[in-house]
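Q: What does the predicted 3D structure of NUDIX domain-containing protein look like?
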Amino acid sequence: MRHIRTAARALIILNQKVLAIKMRDRSGVFYILPGGGQRHGETLRQGLKRECLEEIGTEVEIGELLYVREYIGKNHEFRKSHHSFHQVENVFSCSLPDPDSIGPGTEHDKKQVGVEWIPLTDLHNRRFLPEVIKPFFKDGVFSPPSNYLGDIN
């Protein structure tokens, strides 16, 4: 039996920039929101706090749930390596008590090579996943058309 993985991610916008994890794979650099898989026995918020400490090295203040998206690997560009991967991601609006405290976290993902503030005006020039959310950043605000985005990448 294959399991569905649950995850939480942080959407942090400050000074017209979004905080992203810089990743590298065979096809180059790409960006994702900070966060990751939920562990058994922890809430989504607890998991997100832990993941942010691991990836961006600082505490986050977790706000409201912005949207939920699914990622069913066999339906997307990484189908060969993600064929049996299914994840439900819960994305929260977050802020940083101390924006200057971002640094090396305690534990990086395998492909993580850094952390970067991406100007919202430059987002369309970056390989930012999931690509489909890029148009939802308008005038420094993130506003998705629905709180459930379905199976997207």
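A (community wiki): The structure tokens above were generated from the sequence. The helical segments are 44-56, 79-82. Residues 5-151 form a domain with the Nucleoside Triphosphate Pyrophosphohydrolase fold (CATH 3.90.79.10).
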